Amino acid sequence: MLLLLSTSATGAEIYAQDGTYLGKLGGSPYQYDSTANPSGPYGSTWGVNSINNPNGRYGAEWSTQSPNNPYTLTPPVIRNEEGLE
């Protein structure tokens, strides 16, 4: 389950259980695919594949594929630069 992010996760990528790319963790809020970019597709509150979209499949607290659902059995996975989880 996705609970804590350390500085070692900076630059790591997050993927939904269905394989959908959900962006890069950490990084600059100006980076296109960063989850920290409030204007980008992976960091905004409106992005279809954003973990910050409270109404979306990957961001809503009720969604089974969201890191914001504390009860999910299928949370996203974090992969480092080598592709390891």
Identify the strand order in the major beta sheet: 2-1-3
Mean pLDDT metric: 87
* CA-based shape: flat
Helix content: under 10%
Characterize the largest beta sheet: strand count, sense, and whether it forms a barrel: 3 strands, antiparallel
Give the helix/strand layout:
Elements: E1 13-15, E2 21-24, E3 77-79
Antiparallel strand pairs: 1-2, 1-3
Comma- or semicolon-separated keywords:
flat, 85 residues, disordered N terminus, 3 strands, 0% helix, little secondary structure
Report on the architecture of this protein.
- It is a single chain.
- This protein is largely without helices or strands and 85 residues long.
- It has one domain (11-85).
- It is 0% helix and 12% strand.
- It has no helices and three strands.
- The protein has strands at 13-15, 21-24, 77-79.
- A three-stranded antiparallel β-sheet has the order 2-1-3, with no helix packed on it.
- Strand 1 and strand 2 (21-24) form a beta hairpin.
Task: Please summarize what this structure is.
The chain is low in regular secondary structure. The protein has one domain (11-85). The protein contains no helices and three strands.
